[in-house]
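Chapter summary example: a protein plus fe (ii) ion.
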Amino acid sequence: MKPSLGHKKQTKLIEQFVREKMSDIPDPHGIKHVEDVVGIAQKIGTKLKISDKDKIQLEAAAWLHDIGRKKEFSIPGAKSNHAKFSAEEGKLFLSTISFPSEEADKIVEAVLEHSNREPSTTLIGKILQDADKLSRLTGRGGLIAAIQFTVAREPNELLDNLSEERLPDWRTEEFEKLLSILNFNLEWFEMLSFNESKEMCRQGYMDLKAYCDQIQDLLNKRN
Ligand SMILES: [Fe+2]
Ligand SMILES: [Fe+2]
């Protein structure tokens, strides 16, 4: 049996593995989404005062939860299988860095259940599900989701233009369309497992709305 590398080192190796694996996957399923989920999951975990052991497993699960996207995209007809692929690839990688098997099993279970409609069976699984939803309801991910449903342009192109100097590239009508769809997604909100996540969702939505209002003000001034 190989000696244990220590959790800090193992977490770093998991992060490196995920960054390399997902470097060429575009928004909204790429590494920026994963970074968001890791950060949000850590915040929920802190609010819930979870144990240090759970924190380590949660961070690992959040990094690994979407690594199967690449395989999903490369196999025609494999849509909706990314959680299964992520769990399989995650399990394999955790074994290569000698992650204790009992803990690895919990991580893999959370990854496998993360996109289920019903709540995960474990604490870290539920937190991961909430973080994944919050990443689509708030912040940059929330804006990307709204853009995709509205102006039918590449989210990156639009987001890269989010500065006062670049505003001339924008059309006011497009942005108004975007704002109209930036509604609070009540269905997803109701699916959040923890009150702490719901509070973060409310706040994040208000911040996003305020940000969009600012952009709209700039557009109105220009026109
Ligand atoms: Fe996912
Ligand atoms: Fe995700």
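Key point: The CA atoms of residues 67 and 205 lie 27 Å apart.
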